[in-house]
Amino acid sequence: MKMINNVPAVIRLHQSDNVGVAARPVPKEYPIDDAQHLTEENIDAGHKVALLPIAKGQAIVKYGQVIGLASRDIAVGEHVHTHNVGMLERDTSLKSFKPASRTVVTRAERTFDGFHRANGQVGTRNYIGILSTVNCSATVSKVVAEQLNATHEFEALGFDGVVPVTHGTGCAMNTESEGFAFLERVLTGYAVNPNFAFVLIVGLGCETNQVKQLVEKHGLSDSSRIYYFNIQGAGGTRASIELASNKIREMAREHAHAQRQPAPLSHLSVALQCGGSDGYSGITANPALGHAADLIVQHGGSVILSETPEIYGAEHLLINRAIDAEVARKLLERIAWWKHYTQINGAQLNNNPSPGNKAGGLTTILEKSLGAVAKSGSSSLNDVIEYAEPLRVPGFNFMDSPGYDPVSVTGQIASGATVVCFTTGRGSVSGFKPAPCLKLATNTAMYDSMQEDMDVNCGHVVDGTATVQEVGERIFERIIAIASGEPSASERLGYGNNEFVPWMVGAVT
Q1: Please, what is the Cα angle at 429 between 426 and 434, to 5 degrees?
Q2: Three-class secondary structure of residue 350 per DSSP
Q3: d(CA 121, CA 194)
Q4: Which residues face 49 on adjacent strands?
Q5: Smallest Cα–Cα separation from 14: which of 45, 78, 59?
Q6: Which helix (H) or strand (E) holds 418?
Q7: Nearest-CA neighbor of 301 among 388, 383, 393, 390?
Q8: Is-above-0.90 flag for pTM?
Q9: Secondary structure (DSSP) of 77-96
Q10: What are the backbone dihedrals phi and psi of residue 132, each rounded to the nearest 5 degrees, phi first?
Q11: pLDDT, tens digit, for every residue of 290-340?
Q12: In what order do the strands lie in the sheet with 161-165?
C-alpha cells in the first residue's frame, strides 16, 4: 500500500474499526490495505471507506465505537457516508455506574502572566466592558466604545480596549422563563469575568430586563468596578453617551496601569470549543486539545466542554468519567431535556451535523460527538452545570448549551472562561472578547489556505510529522503564551465584538 511520510492513504483508527479515514484525496481503484483491496470510487479527504464487507443493519465502527448502522450492504472499498449509513439510538443508563477517581493536581511548576483582581481572580486580558441590558441600549453602548477606542487614550493607561457587549433581546420576555434566566446569568457572568477591569451597564429604562433589578438580584454591588444607569433617566442618547464616556474615563484612571504578574495555572479557565468540524477533527485537533486540557487540569486549572447536542451518542464516555452518580445524573438529565426540546420543535438531535460537517466527512451525530468529546481529554468529570452558571469545581466541567458556537462560547465565558480554544476543519473565523481565542486547524490544507486565521496546525498528526501528544504540548504552550498577553490570530484580525449571543429559549411577546 502506498504511503507518504509513513502515513497510509487510508487510516484505521482502531483495530475493531470496519471503516478507515482518507488521509488525503484517494482516487478510484487505489489500494487501501495490505491485501490490495481497491477503492470503488473517489474518496475525498476526511471521508470514510469500508475496510470490510458490511451487511445491511450491521454496525459502522470508527474509533472503536458504533457511529451508525449500514442502511444497505456495503462492499470493501466503498465510500461510507450519508447515502448508506443510518442513525442508531444508544441506550444509556446508570444501572452499572461506577464513579471515576477524581483527577488530582500533580504539577504546579507552570505559571502565566495575568492581571490580578482585588477579589482574587486573575484575568488574561485587561478590557473595559460596556454591557447592554436590552437591544434598545445597544447603539449607545457601541457608539461610546467606538468613540473611546478611537482616542487610544485607554491603551496609554494599560487597557486592551473598550468592548461593547450588545445583543438583540432583553424585552418582551417572560421573566419566569429559562431564556430570561439565561440572559441574566450571561450578563452577570460577563460583568464579573476577570478579563474586564471594570464594566458599565447601560439600560433603556422601560425594558423587561431592568438594570437595577439585575444588579441587586445578582449581587453586582462592587461600585469600584461596576456602574450602571438608564438612558431615559440620563436624558436621552447624547446625554447618555456623555455620561458613559465621562464615567469610563473616571473609572479608568482609578484602574490605570495594571501590570501582568505571574499566577499559577489554577487561575486559568479554558473553554473547549469546535466549529466547522470535518473528518479529521476527531483524529487531530480534538484529541490534541484533549491532551492540552489534561495538562491544564493536572496543573490545577479548569476546562469547560459544552455543546450538549454534540456529545449525544458519546455521553457514555463522559459518564464513565463522572466522579459520582449525581454528576452522571445531571448529564443524563440535560440529554433528556434536549431530546424533548428537539422533538417539540419538530427536529431531532441527528439533524445537528451541518452541510459543512457532512462535506468534511462526518455522517451522523454519533460520529461527530465521539470526535467532539475528544476535546475534553481523559480527566475526571467533576461537575455538570447549566448554561452560563458559574464554575463551582476546578478541573474538567461540562456546561449545557446548544451546538451553535457563539451561543455556546458566550455561556462558557459567562461561566468564567478566560481563554477559548476552538478546533476547526472547515475554517471557522470568529473571536470572543473579552477572552482571547486560539484557532486549531484539523488539517494542513486548510491551515495553509487560512494561515492568518489559525494559531496551531494540528494537521501534522495526519501528515505523520507529529504525534497527538506533541501537538497537544504545542497547544498547551500557546495557551500559556496567549494567556500571558501574546495576541491570538483572531485578535490580530480584530474579531470579538459581534459574537456575544445569549441563548434564547421561550416565547417573545
Answers
A1: 140
A2: helix
A3: 6
A4: 20, 79
A5: 59
A6: none
A7: 393
A8: yes
A9: T-EESTTTEE-------STT
A10: -95, 130
A11: 999 999 999 999 999 999 999 988 999 999 999 999 999 999 999 999 989
A12: 161-165, 127-132, 196-203, 226-230
Three cell numbers, residue 42: 473517489
Measured over all CA atoms, what is the biggest interatomic distance in the chain, rounded to whole angstroms?
A: 80
C-alpha 245 chain-centroid distance:
33
> For residue 135, which phi and psi values (nearest 5 degrees)?
-55, -30
Peptide bond into 164 cis (omega under 30): no
The residues, ordered by sequence, that sit 6+ positions from 354 with a Cβ below 8 Å of its Cβ are: none
Cell of 167: 445583543
Q: Which of the 8 DSSP states describes residue 267? A: G
CA distance 254 to 249: 9
Which set of grid coordinates corresponds to residue 340? Answer: 424533548
* Other beta carbons less than 10 A from residue 343's beta carbon: 11
Q: Phi, psi (5° rounding) for residue 92?
A: -110, 130
Question: Tell me: the pLDDT tens digits for 421-480?
Answer: 999 999 999 999 999 999 999 999 999 999 999 999 999 999 999 999 999 999 999 999
**Can you tell me the distance from the alpha carbon of 90 to that of 44, in angstroms, rounded to the nearest whole number?**
29
Question: CA 9: distance to chain centroid?
Answer: 31
Would you say 134 and 203 are in contact if contact means Cβ atoms under 8 Å apart? yes
C-alpha cell at 57: 443493519
**Rounded-to-integer distance, Cα 218 and Cα 503, Å:** 19
